[in-house]
Design brief:
Strand content: under 5%
Number of strands: 0
Distance between the termini: 44 Å
Helix content: over 70%
C-alpha cells in the first residue's frame, strides 16, 4: 500500500459501495451497481491487506526520529500510547523518552502523564514544565496561578 492508503479508506469504501449498490438497484442503473462492486472489492482488499502489514519497528522509528523525521516521532508516540493502553507502561516510557529526545512536545506531555500516574505530580513536574516551555497549552495551565503546579503563586509560570 502506498503512503496514506490504509484501512481507513477501506472502511469508507465498503459502506459507500453498499449505498451506491442500493441506489443502483432502486434506480435500475447498472453502471452504479458495477461501480459499487469495484468499491466493495477495493474496500475488502484494503481492509484485509492491512491485517498482514508488519507493525512498525520501534528501532527504525527511533533512528528516523533522531534524524529529524517528524512522521517517525509521531509513530513512536503512537506506539507508546498503544503500549500504555495495553498495560505496558515500561515500554510506553521507553518509547516516549525516545520521542522526547527528538523534541516532540506532545510526547513530553504524555511522558509527564505517565510519570504522574506512577509516581505522582511532583515527579512529573519536569516533563510538564518541559512541555509548557515549548508551548503545550494544557501543560501551561498547570503553571498558572492556582494551577496544580503553581497553587500559591510562588513558582513563576513558564
Amino acid at each position: 500500500m502506498g503512503p496514506g492508503v490504509g484501512p481507513g479508506l477501506g472502511y469508507f469504501l465498503l459502506p459507500a459501495g453498499g449505498a451506491l449498490s442500493l441506489t443502483g438497484v432502486f434506480t435500475g442503473n447498472g453502471t452504479l451497481i458495477s461501480l459499487s462492486w469495484i468499491m466493495w472489492v477495493l474496500g475488502i482488499l484494503l481492509v484485509l491487506g492491512n491485517r498482514y502489514r508488519r507493525p512498525a519497528d520501534p528501532r527504525a522509528l527511533a533512528a528516523a526520529a533522531a534524524a529529524g523525521d517528524a512522521r517517525a516521532v509521531r509513530g513512536l508516540r503512537t506506539l507508546a500510547l498503544t503500549a500504555r493502553a495495553e498495560g505496558r507502561p515500561d515500554t510506553a516510557e521507553r518509547l516516549l523518552r525516545q520521542a522526547v529526545k527528538a523534541g516532540d512536545v506532545e510526547s513530553m506531555w504524555e511522558l509527564g502523564r505517565l510519570v504522574e500516574q506512577r509516581e505522582g505530580l511532583a515527579a512529573a513536574e519536569p516533563w510538564f514544565r518541559m512541555a509548557a516551555e515549548r508551548g503545550h497549552a494544557v501543560a501551561k495551565r498547570l503553571f498558572r496561578p492556582g494551577g496544580a503546579l503553581h497553587p500559591d503563586g510562588a513558582d513563576p509560570a513558564p
